[in-house]
Design goal:
The complex is a heterodimer of chains A (144) and B (444). Chain A is an all-alpha fold. Chain A has helices at residues 10-25, 32-53, 73-83, 116-140. In chain B, the strands form three sheets. Chain B has an eight-stranded mixed sheet, with helices on both faces. Chain B has a five-stranded mixed sheet with strand order 3-2-1-5-4. A two-stranded antiparallel sheet of chain B has the order 10-11. Chain B is globular, with a radius of gyration of 25 Å. The chains are: A mainly alpha (144), B alpha/beta (444). The A-B interface holds A 54-55, 58, 66-68, 78-79, 81-87, 89, 92, 95, 97, 144 and B 31, 33-35, 37, 39, 41, 74, 78, 81, 83-85, 88-89, 93, 114-118, 243-245, 247, 251, 253, 255.
């Protein structure tokens, strides 16, 4: 049996990754490694929601048409601020990319690498994106 | 300290000086973001591996850019951005060439500018419209542009043309009230359509956003589409939304000027005009930009008083078109209109017209005509775009409108137009009317 092809729902995925990341981070003892991955995925999904509104093309399965848009948080943060244009200038991210030291490949790494301070900076980055999405919803109404 | 205007010349210098070692890594896309920060975008295959030594040409380039352009760049390791499908990204970014200090384009180096507005003055649309669209534009307000448009529209309709008039001076509306009696104002206007279109409700508006005036001439008709309807309603709140991008039924994003163009095409399909006259906002404004560059205009009238401020303003626009390599595309559509020329005293009108022509020529020949069009590939000699000062058909040669007491500060034109003061209108606006009749393919 093959896995069903479930189309992305970036807004919903941003929320669920965030909620799960928060649960893992606040466990005693915290599950830092997986929380870290999920904060990064939450930020990626939030930024893809906004980028879609700005014109990022998706195919009929909601997947970005261009490979250059199929990126994770570490790259998307920079691309968002670099190419952002048009109105809604308040929807700006901080210039410094908090996911500079985050990678999707860290999902294979040992738990011993994940320090609380680093994970916290990724948590803050994901929280920034969530705030931005909430602001966009206020200004623009429904986000696709 | 480096300021905004020095960014591109400095980059041109840095890249030019290192061209031999940078050649394998071209093309470059220089990205100037919303905050005026620079990044250099390169093809992903050129990304240096992390262990590469610091004398790698790209790392040295990033360091040089960082040193020279701070604070308009991040740290040197943040300056380079590597992208797959760079060519496609460039095409989507409407880039313009990077010019060196001599105005010569650097090969394979382009600039993408990210602005807070969507209409940018340099995305010049192709002339694909079958109906001639003529834009009335002025760099400064208060020069009698809307009055001239109203008078020309009426005269064209009287001579048998079907004239569609669009009041796109959205932030200072009023053309329709000067053309239509209060009782004939339609229920809706352009602003209503642009707002309703955002919720796919444009079609019902389309049928109720115009008023038609018949003329004595068979076939002639004046179809006026105002900025707002009979009751402006919450005009400020609507105006604040017209700029919104929209989405088509199949999910394609459309800028507001693309939506505007769609509206105009629908109006043209409904009313079948022989000419469309568009009253544009004055100044370097976003609506004006859409009117001048995005609406497939066949002809753009540049209304001008012969003043220092007027030519300074037009020079900014002309230089922008030259820098963005679109001067050759737009210059053939331009035509100067001399506005409010003095008509008192001996020879004053003629002298003022000649003086205006001279100043117009100075600016056109220096920036837009071929001789001085530095940086762009020159066309073959026999196709060169150049004109003699005295050439009556040249873009710089003013269609002269004299100041006239009767049309100054006029509240409404419709009474006067109805009073059939055809000779008076012809006397004041004759050159403009004849020019427009020629655009329609009719004999003046």
């Amino acid at each position: 049996m093959t896995a069903p092809n479930l189309p992305p729902d970036y807004l919903d995925a941003m929320e669920r990754h965030w909620l799960d990341a928060e649960q893992l981070f606040h466990l005693d003892p915290p599950s830092l490694a997986n929380a870290d991955q999920l904060y990064g995925l939450s930020a990626e999904c939030g930024l893809k929601t906004l980028m879609r509104k700005w014109g990022m093309q998706l195919d009929h399965n909601n997947v970005p048409v261009h490979p250059r848009d199929r990126k994770h948080a570490d790259v998307i943060w920079v691309r968002y601020e670099t190419y952002r244009q048009g109105r809604f200038t308040t929807l700006a991210l901080p210039t410094t990319n908090p996911f500079d030291d985050w990678s999707i490949h860290h999902r294979y790494a040992s738990r011993s690498y994940f320090q609380e301070t680093v994970v916290k900076s990724h948590m803050n980055g994901a929280a920034e994106v969530k705030k931005l999405v909430a602001k966009a919803q206020k200004i623009l109404g429904h986000l696709p | 300290m480096t300021t905004f205007d020095e960014l591109l010349p400095a980059l041109a210098e840095i890249i030019h000086d290192r061209r031999p070692e940078l050649k394998p890594f071209l093309p470059f896309l220089i990205n100037r973001d919303l905050n005026g920060r620079i990044r250099l975008i390169l093809e992903a295959s050129h990304q240096p591996i992390p262990e590469v030594s610091s004398d790698h040409p790209l790392l040295q380039l990033a360091e040089a850019i960082h040193t020279r352009l701070a604070p308009h760049v991040g740290q040197s390791e943040q300056i380079l951005l590597f992208e797959e499908e760079l060519t496609e990204l460039m095409e989507a970014s409407s880039p313009f060439p990077l010019l060196d200090r001599d105005g010569k384009a650097l090969e394979d180096v382009h600039v993408a500018d990210r602005l807070a507005q969507e209409a940018t003055w340099e995305s010049i649309s192709d002339k694909t419209s079958t109906v001639p669209r003529v834009v009335f534009y002025s760099i400064k307000g208060g020069v009698g542009r809307s009055t001239a448009l109203a008078a020309c529209a009426w005269a064209l309709a009287e001579s048998g043309q079907r004239v569609l008039v669009l009041d796109l001076d959205l932030e200072s509306p009023g053309l329709s009230t000067s053309l239509l009696p209060t009782s004939r104002q339609p229920a809706y206007g352009i602003t209503d359509w642009l707002v309703e279109d955002l919720v796919n409700n444009g079609d019902p508006i389309l049928e109720q956003m115009h008023a038609s005036l018949g003329t004595q001439h068979r076939g002639g008709e004046l179809i006026v589409v105002p900025s707002h309807g009979d009751n402006p309603g919450e005009y400020v709140s609507k105006l604040g939304r017209v700029w919104m991008p929209g989405f088509t039924a199949d999910g394609q994003r459309q800028t507001w000027s693309e939506r505007l163009l769609r509206m105009i095409q629908q109006l043209e399909a409904t009313h079948q005009p022989t000419i469309v006259l568009i009253d544009s906002r004055a100044g370097i404004d976003e609506v004006a930009s859409a009117c001048v560059t995005d609406l497939d205009a066949k002809l753009i009238y540049l209304f001008a008083l012969d003043s220092l401020q007027t030519w300074q303003g037009y020079r900014i626009l002309f230089e922008h078109w030259r820098l963005h390599d679109v001067a050759t595309k737009i210059r053939e559509r331009l035509r100067v209109v001399g506005a409010l020329l003095p008509t008192w005293g001996d020879q004053a009108f003629l002298q003022a017209t000649l003086q205006l022509r001279e100043n117009a020529y100075l600016n056109f020949s220096k920036i837009l005509y071929d001789e001085e069009l530095a940086g762009a590939a020159l066309p073959l000699a026999d196709e060169s775009f150049n004109f003699d000062l005295r050439d009556l058909d040249a873009p710089h040669s003013p269609l002269a409108i004299g100041w006239n007491q009767g049309f100054a500060a006029i509240g409404s034109l419709h009474d006067r137009l109805a009073a059939s003061e055809a000779n008076q209108i012809k006397f004041v606006f004759g050159p403009l009317i004849d020019n427009l009749l020629a655009v329609c393919g009719a004999e003046p």
